[in-house]
Design brief:
Elements (H helix, E strand, L loop, with lengths): L9 H19 L6 H4 L8 H26 L6 H11 L29 H14 L6 H15 L6 H15 L10 H11 L1 H11 L6 H11 L2 H22 L3 E3 H8 L5 H8 L6 E3 L2 E5 H8 L5 H9 L2
Antiparallel strand pairs: 1-3, 2-3
Helix pairs in contact: 1-3, 3-4, 3-7, 5-6, 6-7, 6-9, 6-11, 8-11, 9-10, 11-14, 12-13
Amino acid sequence: MVAYQPIVLVEEFLRYLVEEETVCSLAIERIEVQLKDLGDKQVSADKKTQQALNYLKTAEEVYKLAYQGFKTDKEVIDEPLILWAYQNLWQGFGIKAEYRKTPMQILGALFEPPPPEAVPFLMQTLIKWLKEEGQNLTPIRRATIFHLLFEVIHPFEDGNGRLGRILMNAILIEGGYINVAFRNREEYISALKQSQEGAVIVIEALARGRRLSVRDITETVEYYSNLEVFENLIRKEILRSLQIYGRKLNIYLTSKEVGELLGYKNPDYVRVLINRKKLFGEKTPQGWRIPLSEVIRFAENKLNLERTLKTIFKI
């Protein structure tokens, strides 16, 4: 029998999840790699594998900083970090860490990114928004709006999607969440398109020279965008990750913890659910233990995500 383990370290959980995120993020760009291709390699002659290795190493370093930022309540994303991350994403490819200097078109997009001369100002505005206004929002909303604005700006010649997802995940980790692996390419792109109208309006206005306060930016994006579509996708993928790696890492909760997560005033009701076979649990000398994956299966739409993460990781 597996030893009772009610919690798991955030660092251990992220180590597994970042590998899957790498494969999923590259797949969004139609770059197919497998988990086995990553291994302990540092460099690869295969360009696809090298891009995956670069993504994995960059994400790991950025997320370490983000987790430290969470523990110290410090925002770590700034322009030097963004440029450093971009350079590392393209290590070995001879691509400079600088904003694009040419106009950009995105195949299939409903908008045209701003002209290159506007990009430095827009990026500075985006970082200012994150530091001044982002703290007034929930981590998922903060990460969503940042990601939408970043992707509309499209500040670099290539790799904007990959870098944007890493930065979005860093914001989630800073807020006490875990990173997201978007496992379905079409679902991710669809959610992005459905949620980006407000971001397009903001970036186009700023590029034309209109002055917007950080609060104006938030209110415009929230008014014109269907943010819930993208936010719900983030929530769905986080819960799926908790299920998958809850099984892999043998994460169990006590009946008291489950009762608190489900909002039951009487913790004995968890045992009633187990006896009725609506919820699976095992009796041990220390008390009942319930697999995290089973809790999510039973009450996915009822779980408070922030409270669930705090319970699992004891943060």
